Amino acid sequence: MIANPSTQEPNRSASSVSFRAVLVGLILTPINCYWIMESDIVHYVGFSTTVSLFYNVIFSLILLLTFNAGLRRWFPKWRLRQTEMLTVYVMLAISSALCGHDQVQVLISMMAYPVQYASTSNNWDTLFLHKMPRWLIVTDKPALHDFFGGHTSLYTVEHLRAWMLPSLVDQNPLVWMAEVNGVLVDLRDMPRELQVIAYEKGMIPYVPADKE
After folding, report:
1. 143 in Cβ contact with 162 (< 8 Å)
2. At 111, which helix (H) or strand (E)?
3. Which of 51, 89, 117, 158 has its CA 20 to 30 A from that of 67?
């Protein structure tokens, strides 16, 4: 006996965003962003986000469709629905647009360029630098030199401290870690004399004892 479709209970989850679809999107997002950064910046080829349909997203979707075809054949209960595939596509398309050409790739350079190339000849200090919010630009000269010179890593305490938003400085323990007599310590817990020495050497943004 075939049930009347009008009397069947509607499948509410078929039209909603599921947790597993978001999870798949979150797994594929960093992979797609890494692909874009490698092709656009490192190798300077491809530029997948300069066309209307991002081919990196289409390629990921084709792989997901292929995988889903296997699920449909051997594990039909686990196959992704059309709404879930659409969720993954939207997540990948938005994240690709944000990290793609003329977005974050250009924003990072714009955050560093004004301070690095300000000079007495162009008068950028008096023209507009003083009007730019401090949280929007990087002002640490050594960090800027390393950024434009290369041959170093972003993932050092000094570089992370320079690029971090001022509002997040207090919450990041890496900003306050230092080696004292061979022991790694949190400078916020050290005597004020040590904090002043660290501040004068440019190791910390301010003296924590004076802020309390």
Report:
1. yes
2. helix 104-116
3. 51
For residue 7, the 8-state DSSP code is G
Distance, CA of 192 to CA of 96 (rounded, Å):
46
Token pair listed for 212: 């309390």
- Contact yes or no for 121/61 (Cβ under 8 A): no
C-alpha to C-alpha distance for 161 and 175, rounded to whole angstroms: 6
Structural domain containing residue 149: 137-211
Question: Is residue 186 within a helix (H) or strand (E), and if so which, with residue range?
Answer: strand 183-186
Q: What is the pLDDT of residues 193-210, one digit of tens each?
A: 988 988 888 777 788 888
**HSE-up (13 A, CA, CB side) for residue 74:** 5
How is residue 178 annotated by DSSP?
A: E
The answer to whether position 48 is within a domain reads yes
State the Cα–Cα distance between residues 140 and 130, nearest whole angstrom: 15
How far apart CA 119 and CA 72 sit, in angstroms, is 63
φ and ψ of 116, to 5 deg:
-65, -40
The residue from 80, 102, 124 where one domain ends is 102
CB 186 within 8 A of CB 179: no
